[in-house]
Amino acid sequence: MADELGPLLRELRERAGLSQLRLEERSGVSATHISRLETGKSRNVRRDTVNRLLDAMDPTTEDRRRMASVLTELDGDRPAGPGGPDGDRSAGPGGVDGGRSAGPGGVDGGGPAGPGASTPPPAEIRRRRPVRPASGPLSEAADQLAAETRRRWQREEEQRLVLDPYPLPVRRRSVSATITDLDANIRRLPPGAVAAPLDLSGDQHGIGDLYRGIGSGRLVVLGQAGSGKSVLAMRLVLDLLQDDGRTGADPVPVIFDIGSWDPTAHTLRGWLTGRLLRDHPYLAGGSSPVGAAAAALVDDGHILPVLDGFDEMAEGLRRRALEELNRTSLPLVLTSRPDEYAAAVRSATDGTVTPLKWAAAVELAEITPADLLEYMPRATRSPLAADGPWDRTLRGRTDPEVRLHRVLSTPLMVFLARTVYGEGKVRDPGELTDGSRFPTEDSLRRHLLAAFVPTVYRPRAAEEPTADGPHRGRPPQWTPEHAQRWLGHLARDLVRAGRERQDIAWWRIGHSLSTSTRALAVAAVSALCVALPVWLAEALIAVFGEVRFVAAVTEGAALGLGAGITAGVLYAGMATFGGSVFAPSRVRLRLRRGPGAGRRPARTFAARSGAMVLAGLAMGVGVSCTLTLQRVLYHDWSFTSAEVLRVLATDALLLGLIFGMAFGAVFGLTAMLEAPLDVSSAATPGSLLAANRRTVRAQLCVTVPALALAIAFGGGLVCGLLDPLLGPLVWLPQDAVVIGTVGGIGGGLSYALCFTAWGQWLIFVRLLLPLQGRLPWRTDVFLRDAYHRGVLRRTGAVYQFRHVHLQHHFAHAGDPEG
């Protein structure tokens, strides 16, 4: 049958209007191998190779059946073995294998794409799959990402009680064709083909099959606030990542909160790469091949972006974002509220509709009273009898009861109701039908939101564990009043920013403080970091020699003041002109180079050392100014004398060069020791904070002695080089020891505490904000506890309020902070 395979391949290629070179571009199979297959010269016909060619040529279902028949007879003409025609039985949906692994739309015609969904031709289903090797660094990175993503969202599904007692019925229906693309475009059919209407109705079950049945790989999920869009997106990711559903060539679905994307500042691919690096730090650039995988995974189409929260973008950015999405051919899933999406697809000038190209769309329906009658008693472990509390509350048809039905028509309000009136609660849900207390739907919603915090912050038993295991010692007993105040501070900071955000990132919490407050704090901490080693050194000298109390105090104060002012000015300048949000480190220090370590690019070293050279120069100038001031005050010098000005200029030049060279060399070389985090360090807020704490400690262990040595020996070198021009210059051994030690300890500590994400967390969030009463002293414990109580959710390396409604409620509850 080999003589039938070649003519059939050539027939399909010519019908598709493709040359062998063009087919090579689309399939990844070399033109030489295509020619050998068509002429019957190839004796190694692999099913996966034929599948890739078919996917690129878009044949009909009948043509795929013909090809399957040819390959089946070809298999009988020769023995099978590894690498032979039966060596690959993993043909996925749309393959020619026809075996049990064929998915929706395969040649065996197996099953619809989802409940009530029509099955498109198999070529449509597989077109979005990237062609990549079955092994190698990029494939390993994708497999690691898929496994870690599946574990993360399985834990999140358990934490959100999605399956307790069973998934809340959330039904979907097709959206009006006025805001969607044409069916033929959604199916990606060739010109002249007639597309049958897509039927996308169903429920949350089989959402993965529904998506696989969309030829373009693009889906829009619409729903009102609290209707379950985010949970459906989570369910879709888990369905697509099931062990029996994903093959090695499928893109990895990853949820991104699109509300934080600014399409005017970042390209889609660049923003996706940045978010991958934040939430999956082992994909960060580094010395290992996998370290550079994030950008490659995005650029090569190995990521399926699930973009959650389109409606949470600023109104002025939605249309621009939609235009950017239409400029790319990436498969994607987008969730939004209907009105916001409809407004974005309609032009504000002439009313023309420009939907997300190639995208099918579904809308989530409301929960019915019958669903509530079945679900609420089981979710709250209430009696199922006809006279049970929920049966009495929901079965009536009076105005208050109908009003309650409408309020409880979204999963968010159902979650609040089951929390407030759930298992072990003494409150009677019958009070929700009290028309005098709750005359409107809004009053009911406000009541459920207001009752949420007092309910979840009820005192816990001492032995009650959390999802992370039991607390050490006594579990935290936050009062509802304190929790309300602290959550309100977090929510107000998110709402009052330049544009509303959702991410509670631990490295950004401190920026709720004003820039001036933060700059003053940086100045004070830097001053102490430098002054304390000076005073300690002088104290040691006093033990073994001359006591110089006044001189020691003034010298330490002068050095500290100079370092503090310089650090504060540098920080204020960064905050004003370049942004002062120090992103958490995605690397660790590796003192031993492993077998996979490569050489870091020279430009990375140059960028790191260049910035630190400038900082060292500024530090040297600042310290020389305050030392001169100390000499004027202590030795009664005249500040306007030529000698003082000469000493000032000389010290500024010498110390600027010494500190600049030392800082540049040490921090540049430290960059050479950085390596990407392990996959076991996949970021959660707590793990990323702990990893940054370890990294800063390791940096201190390296930078403090390295700075001390660099300053000690660099001082002698600089003085020796400049002595013929500015001499005589003296750099005594005791100067090298004292200045090197003070510079190493002070410079290392100042950098670690003031110019790293972990250091700013320590100063601003663990110290200043608790002093002002805005946050608890153990903020990390409070956030983790709020997550376990269901107030917050976790998205990668950041927390978010469980729903934007909760965020707005906390932001506006009580009096604003003074």
TrEMBL record:
Where does this protein have coiled-coil stretches? none
Highest taxon of source? Bacteria
Gene Ontology terms, MF aspect: DNA binding
Q: Where are the transmembrane segments?
A: 557-584, 605-633, 653-677, 698-718, 738-769
SUPFAM superfamilies hit by this protein: lambda repressor-like DNA-binding domains (SSF47413), P-loop containing nucleoside triphosphate hydrolases (SSF52540)
Question: What keywords appear on the UniProt entry?
Answer: Membrane, Transmembrane, Transmembrane helix
Q: Does the keyword Transmembrane helix apply?
A: yes
Q: Which parts of the sequence are annotated with region: Disordered?
A: 25-52, 72-155
Q: Which CDD domains match?
A: HTH_XRE
Provide ranges: composition bias, Basic and acidic residues. 35-50
* Record field: compositional bias (Gly residues): 92-114
InterPro entries, alphabetically? Cro/C1-type_HTH, Lambda_DNA-bd_dom_sf, NACHT_NTPase, P-loop_NTPase
What's the name of the protein?
Answer: Uncharacterized protein
